[in-house]
Fold this protein.
Amino acid sequence: MAPDLAGTLAPHAARLADTRLVDLLEADPARALDFSLKVGPLYASFARQRYDRQALAALVDLAGPAGVGLPAAFRALFEGEEVNASERRPALHVALRSSLGTSAVAREAVDLAAAARARMAGLLDELARSGVTDIVNIGVGGSDLGPRLVVDALRDFHDGRFRLHFVANMDGSDIETVLAQLDPARTAGILVSKSFGTRETLLNGAILRDWLGGSGPLYAVTAHLSRAQEFGVAAERVLPMWDWVGGRFSLWSAVGFSIALAVGMERFEELLAGAAQMDAHALHAPPAANLPMLHALTAIWNRNGLGLQAHAVLPYDQRLDLLPAYLQQLVMESLGKSVTADGCPVQGDTVPILCGGTGSNAQHSFFQALHQGTRTVSADFIGVVNPAHPHAGSHDELLSSLLAQAEALARGQDDADPQKFHPGNRPSTMLLLDALTPHSLGALIAMYEHSVYAQSVLWGVNAFDQWGVELGKRIADQLLPAVRGEGVGVDDPVTRALLAEIHRERGA
């Protein structure tokens, strides 16, 4: 049975109910430094979270001492134990980038990942000699969001050999828009699907295959070689996936082939090295000084201690524009559970709604609700200290906005005019990257992965399955003949009425 985290944290939440963030900061001058830590390229400050030292100590106690609790759970993850209980498999995405596990299972996974990277390098060289200039990556969910995020975020490191394009939505306008820009004689495609049965990927893949003339350069990343071959992908152009890597944790694998095509294998290895640095920290650092664990414990406090229902991710760097969307899947698909891994109802609430946007644009969008709305939304602010562009004045303005928004949310503003009153007391974490590089991006993404895993352990849920996604897919399969007008009966009265309207508009 999952622990009653809300009950455990309730005494501290009640004790601090009337204590404001400004009071915590003024009463504890050392807090700004003591509630922060730096891991490699990433500096984190938790000083504007609504807990004091006593409450933070209680949160750290939830993690447990060395050898039990979160430390033991992380060791189980790295050793390839069966942490994905519902599917009876490990979750060894960490073995794609680091060799910290000592078990035979973990060592084999490390060897398989290294062999896959060697094949990636060979196929990259093949494409570089082929005259191809454009690559279309077709996938959905983790087969799209991770590579798309990294390729976009590392735009300053593209080596110029290929232009990368991404197609995910089964809406034909998505692929039509991409292909309209390209020449089939100079284009290659990558189909990414672990099962090679994903409807969106196969629909778009078939359109791409036909557009390439049926014989153009088509590559695949999948765990099912035979299905890719049946689709028309030559065996030597299929890169492996494994059932011990979930889609939303897979960008470090051959799923990241598009990343390597954009930035080269050396930069791809730097991305993995940044993640590996965070892996070692997550596995070895004690909970009180462990960045992913502290990030997770803070999320638990905000959700179960303070009862906050939403969390915003606010990167102040245009290159991280896709990070909130990526984290929506990572966080909400992993933690959107109401039943524990052993089938019992979860006590209390799990994942908050995750939203976000890029500063400073978001300041002119939804920040009004963050500052003066009736509901408090916690936030992660993410900044980059050193830019890659020469516009120092612009970057200083951006950093001042980053710092100002976090301070304003915490402190608020008293004003005789109620329209201008800001309640403040909005908690946030500040994350600063020294620069946005493959190494620092790898560390940042891995930090979030480990935070998600730690939260899942504390809530007792399985972070590595996603059964909630499957029901709608199954119903869609059943409804497809009815949408096509094949006279199939439909039980749901609302769906029947909607189908009737669709067929009227189509003139059927």
Remarks:
- Residues 11 and 160 are 57 Å apart (CA to CA).
- The chain has 19 helices and eleven strands.
- The chain has a mean pLDDT of 95.
